Amino acid sequence: MILETIEKENDIKKVAPEKWNLLADEIREFLIEKISVTGGHLGSNLGAVELTMALHLSLDLPEDKIVWDVGHQSYTHKLLTGRRAGFENLRKYGGMSGFPKRKESDCDCFDTGHSSTSISAGLGLVKARDIMHQNHTVVSVIGDGSLTGGMAYEALNNASRSKSNFIIVLNDNNMSISENVGGVSKYLNNIRTADRYLDIKEGIYNSLKDTKIGDPIVESIRRAKSSVKQLVIPGMFFEDMGLTYLGPVDGHNINAMLRVFKEAKRCKSAVLVHVMTHKGKGFEPAERHPARFHGAEPFDIHTGLPLHQKEKSNYTDVFSTVMCKQGDRNEKLVAITAAMPDGTGLKRFRNMYPDRFFDVGIAEEHAVTFAAGLAAGGLKPVVAIYSSFLQRAYDQILHDVCIQNLPVVFAIDRAGLVGSDGETHQGIFDLSYLSSIPNMHIMAPKNKWELSDMLKFAIDFDGPIAIRYPRGEAYDGLKEYREPIRFGKSEWIYKEKDIVLVAVGSMVKTALDVRDALKEKGCHCSIINTRFVKPIDTEILDEAYMNHSLVVTMEENVASGGFGEKVREYLDSKERRIKILNITLPDEYVEHGNVDILRKEVGIDAETIQKRIGDLINKREV
């Protein structure tokens, strides 16, 4: 195999050009085989194989720099920099990350994971290069889906003023996670279909390249072709911004890309190379269902079907069902998502109520302020965004929703530990950053029925309110505990004495396991389901103080600014002489891996919690 000869960066340059296509085929076969076992981002990587090869053939790594926007398309880059063996443990705890990591390789120059950041980071690397009088090449690779994010345009605006070389590669596959939306997508579609321009350019180049006078003429045409583009492709958005535009070029034709990258490296300013690729290329199931294979679970190679069929509903399914039912009952209910109708469960709502569904693209900031406008106009918006991505809209939540006390519902999916995608995707900060905002209210359900009840409550609530719920299978225990949701009120699950476990959302299930272990040791133990993280239920804390000597708060959030910190602050303010144990995630970034393994590593699993309580009992601190 040719791929086995790639042991380190730049080894691809030893591969004969006539074998490049064979290497591309081997890379696709390798990725399909490995990701079918480990899971991972398949579609985006299959579409970027030749693009990555062309970049590695054009550049000298690690001296030259490639910044991958989001970074989920960097698997081929990892293969070409000698990390083939790492794919055995891709996205597993202690194994190779599914995203670029500087600590993994010198060829990963910038850690990424969220969208629309690569041009800003690349421009920073360019300026650092220039100030330090270096001369290496910097390339930022960004997808067309990422161009729906406003940060990309802030960076393009500044990049247009660059007086030294900076290459921006637009990887255009007409997809983000789901199909692209909005004016940028329409504009790029117009370029893709401008056959008259492509035919003229290729025809002239092919006719002249082999003649003695061909090269000077081609160079003259290149210098003048911006004017030709202006006539043939209306708008020329990027050129109008001050960027040199090259393309479109076939992103599966290595020779064509090598020619355009050579030209791009000669530019003394920022240049955008428009490369057209096909997401999922080479694997028919991924080509037919690119959204499904964006982040794939382990699957059968022959059919493309998941190896582990889902049996029970997850929290996203519950949210989806309730939204559809509430949409029928409330004509003012509208739903907003940021390029993830499938991932957030809003696809069914979109199909049923298309006029009340809004996919704004990868633009969380806009999603939130847009929702504020909808609310100010008399509608009831529900904004469904993953916890990790909602961080990007902190200012809009504070400034545009909460200052005005507008009735916007935030449905925060993937809250807590999410597993294999690692630091950039763990939803472990939302309780902290949301609870710091005046007028914000926060709920967390213990099971699937409580999520249903909380969503109905939130839709009727007159003010900003958030519901955070985890990834994965919805807990269906404790069905008999279904008191009506009352604002700011928690509920007793078990009411005994001595030890009280005050658990938030997903941690209620863990609290049941901790209680069972303590009961076996002869301990009395109560459980409170918090329900509301903000406002905290001070009445139930006062009640718990009367006959308990140890309060154990339990949450899947970092310690700083979390629920436990607020409980401790309240009890301290009342000068209550009671022992408090806060079970939280550490104030640090949690790496990728299986969620059960991560829970144990960070100390929020039932066994570790029970041991910590047992240690306090043995020390007679309780």
Structural features, described:
With 622 residues, the chain is of the alpha/beta class. The protein is 40% helix and 15% strand. It contains 24 helices and 17 strands. A seven-stranded mixed β-sheet has the order 7-6-8-9-11-10-15, with helices on both faces. The protein has a five-stranded parallel β-sheet with strand order 1-2-3-5-4, with helices on both faces. The protein has a five-stranded mixed β-sheet with strand order 12-14-13-16-17, with helices on both faces. Strand 13 (498-503), helix 20 and strand 14 (525-529) form a beta-alpha-beta unit. Helix 15 runs parallel beside helix 17 and helix 20 packs across helix 24.
Q: Provide a count of the helices.
A: 24
| Distance N to C terminus | 64 Å
Strand order of the largest sheet: 7-6-8-9-11-10-15
Low-confidence stretches: 192-198, 224-232
Major β-sheet profile: 7 strands, mixed
Mean pLDDT rating: 90
- What is the alpha-carbon Rg in Å? 27 Å
How many E-type strands? 17
Structural class: alpha/beta
Globally, the shape reads globular
Helix content: 40-55%
In percent, how much strand structure appears in the residues? Answer: 15-25%
